[in-house]
Amino acid sequence: MSKIIFASNLLPLEVTQKKDGKLNISNRIGGYSSGLVNFYNKHHSAWVGWPGINKKQIHSEEKEKINKELKKHNCYPIYLKKKEQENYLEGFSNKVIWPLFHYFNEHSSFRDEYWKYYVNVNERYADIISEIIDGNDKIWIHDYHLLLLPKMLRERFPDISIGFFQHIPFPSFEIFRLLPWRTEILEGLLGADLIGFHTYDYERHFMSSVRRLLGLDTYFNQIRYHKRVLKVDNFPMGIDYEKFNKKANEFLNETPENQLQYKQRIEEHIRVKPDNKIIISVDRLDYTKGISYRIRSFRTFLEKYPEYIGKVSLVLIVSKLRENDARNSYIKDELDAQVGRLNSEYGKIDWLPVHYFVTQLKFEEMVQLFLSADAALITPIRDGMNLVA
Question: Which residues are registered as beta bridge partners of 316?
Fold first, then answer.
């Protein structure tokens, strides 16, 4: 029976190490994988990706145990060494592609070492997929961490069906051409039969780069390449609506004494008065998300409409990621200072303008928080497809 092989940076399951040293395997929260899991579970599938733990953190016996447990869920892990994490993931993926494709090219750091590790890790993905693939399988590759993988697999399996989906923007030609390895990246992607983006703009930018850098013929959303015709299209991604709706209804249908305990805490400590309003904002700590501008905007709102002082609060939830990124550490320091100044200037004994939390919410907490709020304020500077919104 043929299957779909998913390939992405992260597995839908996460391996973490507890304080006592024991390893724990749990479902990953958030990110695009949460929007794919339902589809993955409904089909005969396999998933190749990083489990979130480094090779050096586990012994060979633990690794064997993890592999066995993950295989029950048809997951095949790729373990990154420290150098690979630093250069492939934190380096090329997050310090070259991420800022450049989000139009923050001043943050990009073009290092040959980053590129070398990026190529090597993409090759390792190709090796693992080669071990589990059957002739009629389809391969679905996800995101900017694996831009070279379609070509690598095409060279090994010329007749296999390969799809690639980009979860972040694809920049305009004027930005993309700044990348020293622009030709290799395009040729890597053209190993796929179908290349997908979230919006027509990203699709158009990609087609423009292919024409201008590789000189290939394109016709509407088709590209002729090496006696093949591949398609490029846009597929706006959504969330698992049923999952959110089901959990929300569970909370709303609970008995009055148990109903929405989390919401009751919000009512007591944040809303304070029944007619007060709550604006919710949930984001990952990243310079592309525009969190700093959001706080400035809320300050401007209170300055311009002082009648809302004491009546509206912004609940700002920020999840930390990429601990080693100095730019994001700087952003957190700036947010801390902004929130502190705003609350000290406008806050009252029984009211704060901004309730600021740096934490990773559980799914249940997030749903309860959404149910409690009156409005959501999501303002990324540039995004692939904002799933929080």
Answer: 281, 356
